[in-house]
Amino acid sequence: MMGIQCESILLVVTTVLILSVIFPILTSNNNLNYFTSTYGQNNISTFQKHVKVIDDMPVQKVKVGDIDIAYKRLGNNTEKPIILIGGGATTMDMWNPILLRELSSNHMVIIFDNRGVGNSTLGKDDFSIDQFAKDTVGLLDALNVEKADILGFSMGSFIAQELTLNNPDRVNSLILYGSGCGGKGAVPPSPQALQALEVFARKSSPTQNDSDRFAATMFPSDWFKENPNYENYIPFPKESVTAEMSQRQKEAIFSWWTVGTCNELSKITQPTLIIVGTDDVWLPAANSLMIAEKIPEASLIQIEGAGHGLMNQYPDKFSKVVSAFLEGESD
Questions:
Q1: Which member of 201, 207, 239, 288 has the greatest number of CB atoms within 10 A?
Q2: pLDDT, tens only, 159-200
Q3: Which of 58, 219, 64 is nearest to 139 (CA)?
Q4: What range defines the domain where residue 323 resides?
Q5: Which string of DSSP letters, residue by residue, matches 149-175?
Q6: What is the pLDDT of residues 274-304, one digit of tens each?
Q7: Of all helices (H) and strands (E), which one includes residue 256?
């Protein structure tokens, strides 16, 4: 009976990693200048304007193994490349524009769609976290990027761990946001979060109340009550992820999560930042603490009063923490 309960918890964890960010330019100077100069108003309309700028950027594609990967590049500093690996059920245009603005001011930022998602093709290879990591390395090869900083969120952080462990020579520094290393020691989501997900996921047409209830688990309750217009600060791109691809990603996550990388993390020698919200009820901060204890000299930043939706809840703070870490490592 206990084994069945544990398996159910793991399945729900993988489901939420898929759903958790559903809510959550070009290298030319003209697009970058527009992006930088108009953001300063710091209001809702300006935020959504920059979401649209990123969403409307022409997609570039490159052949990687059995698939064509769709990607975009921001910024011009080719000496400081950073690749962002998104979470489950997300496209590359769901990264917060404030983060992209901060990073692209001093880096060449690469965002992309994982296989079968957005504008990237499906291919024939099996869906797995290991395969996603290989796809990411293949993208770096195709773009002639020998070594890069890596930032992974949720499922993307699992991919980032595998990439770093299997290709240490390709990674300058590692950033794991909203992460975990799986295995028996993983801390499950809160019962309230699981209940909200159950109500949301079982309906073919969730009501606004269902959506709000689920979204509320992404942020601490006090913050959510004070920000009823939360949807105005979250990127909603044109592209979406099909139910079939979400299911296949979920299966890949489940397979990975049962074993994880906890026993291997001591092999990572790259400078590593782990960032998490103290009030994350989906991947509680204890999971990030576990990673920090296993990676030698890793830095753990816990943002007080932030949830799993940290990047959209406190985008300025999140972006500055990430940027400060990267700049410190480049000194």
A1: 288
A2: 999 999 999 999 999 999 999 999 988 988 788 877 776 765
A3: 64
A4: 2-330
A5: EEEEETHHHHHHHHHHHH-GGGEEEEE
A6: 999 999 998 899 999 999 999 999 999 999 9
A7: helix 243-257
DSSP 45-67: HHHHHHHHHHHHSPPEEEEETTE
Place of tokens 């309960």: 5
- The two beta strands, 67-74 and 108-112, are antiparallel
Number of structural domains (the chain) is: 1
Task: Tokens for 36, please give them.
Answer: 């930088």
**What is the C-alpha to C-alpha distance for residues 187 and 287, in angstroms, rounded to an integer?**
6
pLDDT at 22 over 70: no
Distance of CA 38 to the CA centre of its chain: 25
Rounded Cα gap, residues 89 and 101, in angstroms: 23
Q: How far apart are CA 72 and CA 35, in angstroms?
A: 14
For the chain, the first-to-last Cα distance in angstroms comes to: 54
- What is the greatest pairwise CA distance in the chain? 61
57: closest CA among 31, 94, 86, 87?
A: 31
**Integer Cα distance of 66 and 56 in angstroms:** 27
Angle at 180 between CA 306 and CA 189, to 5 degrees: 60
Q: CATH number for the domain including 85?
A: 3.40.50.1820
pLDDT value for 9: 41
Q: What residue type is assigned to position 291 of the chain?
A: I
Report yes or no: 285 and 276 within 8 Å, Cβ to Cβ.
yes
List C-alpha distances in Å: 53 to 23, 96, 231, 310: 18, 12, 18, 22
